[in-house]
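Morning!

As promised:
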Amino acid sequence: METRRVQVAIVGAGPSGLLLGQLLHRAGIDNVIVEQRSAEYVLGRIRAGVLEQTTVDLLDEAGVAARLHREGLIHEGTQMAFGGKRYQINFRKLTGGKTVTVYGQTELTRDLMEVRQEEGAPTIYEALDVSVHGFDANPVVRFHKDGAEQEIGCDFIAGCDGYHGITRASVPAAAIRTFERVYPFGWLGLLSETPPVSEELIYCNHPRGFALCSMRSPTRSRYYVQCSLDEKAESWTDQMFWDELRRRVDPEAAETMVTGPSIEKSVAPLRSFVAEPMRFGKLFLAGDAAHIVPPTGAKGLNLAASDVGFLARALVEFYRDKSSAGLDRYSGRALCRIWKAERFSWWFTPLMHRIPEDVPRDVRARSSQLSWVGRSPSGGWPASTILSARRQLSWPVEAGEFIDGLSVFGCLFLSSFLNGCSASEARQAVGIDRGAVGKPRTPQGLSTGSSCGAGGLSTAGASGLRWWPVSLSSKTVALQT
Ligand code: FAD
Ligand code: DHB
């Protein structure tokens, strides 16, 4: 058996594994990536397209963002369509300057693979029967390559092997807690060499189901339609797809949309999933291996990048400063952010989709909620409310982190949430006592201050899931600007 030793063994060459590998390599930390598929297969998976500012910043730090800055499309906002009309959510205004960058996951993966190869950092593709052992004391990764067994001894293992990977599955059941929701529908995606229908993405809510108009470049479009879970991409001709998409978008988009042959078509399920904790001795989980959000909020890759940012810094701190403080905090910090994104996606996904089991009351309630989202950007004032409230209060922990943590998409939630509130009501609504600047008030007696430290459903997650919708229904409707 061939054996070798590295400081960090990374399982999985998706965006998480490759980005972690690059950040560690730049910091002089010796690492190897073990991937079960070929590089071509990994590059052939069409997935994410929207990168948030924090992800772009991290890619800059990793030294792999040159092409992204040349070719990526900066979007200042996004569009939402419902009831035959279109509305813009202006991220730049709502967040005080943040934007998103449209750049395909495939391109990002290619950039990371190329730099890794140029710099001579090792990746073992087509590794079979990958398994992890001894992560309580002496971690080892084993696999077969070209028929021979190989073993890598290491200080730490990073489990970046996605939702179906083996690292999470190798943890004893008693040591891990998982939370999961599978939505009763999927997304059928189509990629085509056609100019995008709009300069910004359009998220469409329609009685026939959700649709999304996205893009990869000024000449390449990516579209999605909500479909049933058992749908097969092969049973949809291109014409069927375009016809269905046209029915669901707003009239202007339907009229101006340029159609053409598909380059790729695939069905993706929608799932929310979190595993807690994200550290098991010397094994750390990152990205989809630990959590999944439904794609509606474009958060999965961005969360994966944020995990990797925390983990890379913690490992650098361990080797450079001989401190394990960052490693000890990793799981709590990552989960704090993850639950906020789960909360956002949990709210945004049902809002935008047709839910098969909905009764008419649910449909009405959803359409009423959508109308707040629609009114707020056109009224223009929630952005100023947020910003002026931010200026006046220098938002305390929970609210400030809510905005910064969720980045631009969080503001979509916030703008709908704040619509119709006066500034003081808005402050009250997000749990900030007017008379106690800097001191978060606790809605319904739930702890906010400790939630991030503890990291998990028990505080941040549970309070978020229960609290926000309750406040929305009871507070927002009757208030005015
Ligand atoms: P993965 O990309 O799943 O990579 C895991 C890697 O591990 C794979 O290469 C896999 O082959 C490998 N692996 C698995 N098992 C093993 C094993 N046993 N041994 C070795 N290697 C193994 N996110 C966004 O932020 N914005 C978006 O716009 C967005 N849109 C999306 C649209 C769709 C349709 C989908 C499906 C997802 C979207 N996402 C989006 C989510 C995003 O694609 C994922 O969150 C991201 O790919 C996670 O990266 P990862 O490296 O953690 O996992
Ligand atoms: C894309 C995917 C998403 O899930 C999303 O919310 C926005 C864009 C895309 O593939 O372009």
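The two ends are 71 Å apart (CA to CA).

Hope this helps with the figure draft.
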